[in-house]
């Protein structure tokens, strides 16, 4: 068989963009997007994406070239969904921007990416204009396209032509519906550029290939067992790692995308009932939000909800499932384009008590079917840790959807992607005897007190078990004697609980050295737009509090 080799017929570059073509044929007359009172079909969505891609490449005023960066600053509205296809269909690299970033950060990201064009939602108009005003003199500024919204009237619409090249709908209308979209020459060609979500103070530009996105999309559909034509509610921001690959995934199975702007519990419950939603994703903070309202009623139909981003406390999982949500738990990073580990559920676990089921489900789990390998190693020696659920190490990954690298950062890329073939995540975890991974912390979030390593996640999990606690985050506070001690930042469901009460609660449930020595009450903890608590801000607050001078006991 030595003469057999890859040929053009069997070597077409893999890309998730192909899913849209197929779905337009199979499910063309089915609902693709629902937004307020508007409904689009898959034929319409397919045609609109082709028209927009055509305008990007053929407009003499734009002339976006393959490989150039096109940015989007928008919430989960229909245009945001369409752009996940239309921009890479033009050969450009898609860059979704976080709508909750400040103008300075957005200006930095646009300059770093050398973005040529920015699609801007009408409610982010002031934000983008302020960001561009911060560009250094002489710097090339990207053109702006306005995403208008008839349900969000703009009082200054007459002034928009001063700053915006065009509107989104104008570009769609001018495009060719028969446009032959630009397929990647190689499946390794860059498709998207995502900046890390901001739990640290220095976002990095993560570049993913068409191949990587194809692999993670299919693996996510298989792992979550997504059926044909689900009704998917977009509670997860699409700008967060391209919505964990599900814009392309829901297209692949001909589902319906329910889009909306504001993520709050009443809106989510209303849309679930109105559209009989079957699937949604969200960070653990979304689960917490959905289970803390007044007078909550069981769902009219079961809803599969996939959570990731931080280990969900067992108490939150219990409350969520009691309402009729079926919780799936996974793990991934911006650098993996979606979830690559999930807590694959075993039928015999259904017989366990609720608290034990919640404990098992709070683990991250095993690699997805499309991923190659997940392990926990000693970061210094590279030795695999024992699978005893106790010995900690750094979580390492390898697989087809790991990023190409960090944009303009070869040192950062080489540091986390080693010659041995591992991507070092910076997460601290353990491997259980059954082969299931459990994240214990980010390496920078481990608290070292008197020589003992304390997992902030474990302490937070205990705090969430207190009935008065709404949110909790634990960081290190300097200590004259111990070096560091745990400091808990807590928001309450209602006032009345004291620092002493929470400390005593923790003392009854964990070793004394792990108990927070300080509890700080806040109305709300600082978060990224995807619900991750920004611990670096809390660490700074704890540092500014100075060294604690409490008892050595």
UniProtKB/TrEMBL annotation:
The keyword Nucleotide-binding is assigned to this record: yes
Keyword Repeat assigned: no
UniProt superkingdom: Eukaryota
Pfam family, one: AMP-binding_C
Locations listed in the record: Cytoplasm, Cytosol
Primary localization: cytoplasm
Keywords, in A-Z order: ATP-binding, Ligase, Nucleotide-binding
Protein name: Acyl-activating enzyme 5, peroxisomal
Organism for this UniProt entry: Linum trigynum
